[in-house]
Specification:
The protein is built from no helices and eleven strands. By secondary structure, it is mainly beta. It has a single domain, classed as Rieske Iron-sulfur Protein (3-layer Sandwich), CATH 2.102.10.10. The protein has a five-stranded mixed beta sheet, with no helix packed on it. It has a three-stranded antiparallel beta sheet with strand order 1-10-9, with no helix packed on it.
């Protein structure tokens, strides 16, 4: 997992819901160049467990939520990329179906005495 620099506090989503938050990342290109990005992460609550992910489709690079903040399938059992319909397991991020070459990009999440923390930035993501 990428190393986080600092943390930001976010609200805990209700069961079966997600909230978005800003996150900065760096892309390491094969030629050695680095690109700084302002992205979005999202925090989910599924079966009482919190998980945080980059809001980034591993297939197309687009945000997963076509309608802002809506990440879950109609039955609430999977996370869905609304661009191509890829489906992901809400606890592991594993690709369950659709045109995904890998699972979701995880982000660390901490909960301390009822306070939920997610990263402000993530380390370099290697594209090679």
């Amino acid at each position: 997992m990428n190393q986080q620099c600092s943390w930001q506090q976010v609200d805990r989503p209700c069961e079966g819901q997600a909230i978005c938050f800003p996150v900065r990342s760096v892309i390491q290109l094969p030629d050695g160049r680095r690109i700084d990005l302002e992205e979005q992460g999202f925090l989910t609550c599924f079966q009482g467990e919190l998980r945080a992910w980059r809001n980034h489709c591993p297939h197309a690079g687009s945000p997963l939520d076509w309608i802002p903040g809506q990440f879950y399938s109609d039955d609430g059992e999977r996370l869905v990329c609304h661009t191509h319909g890829a489906q992901f397991h809400p606890l592991t991020g594993a690709c369950l179906s659709g045109p995904c070459t890998r699972g979701l990009f995880p982000l660390e999440v901490q909960e301390q005495e009822g306070v939920v923390l997610v990263p402000v930035s993530v380390g370099a993501i290697n594209t090679s």
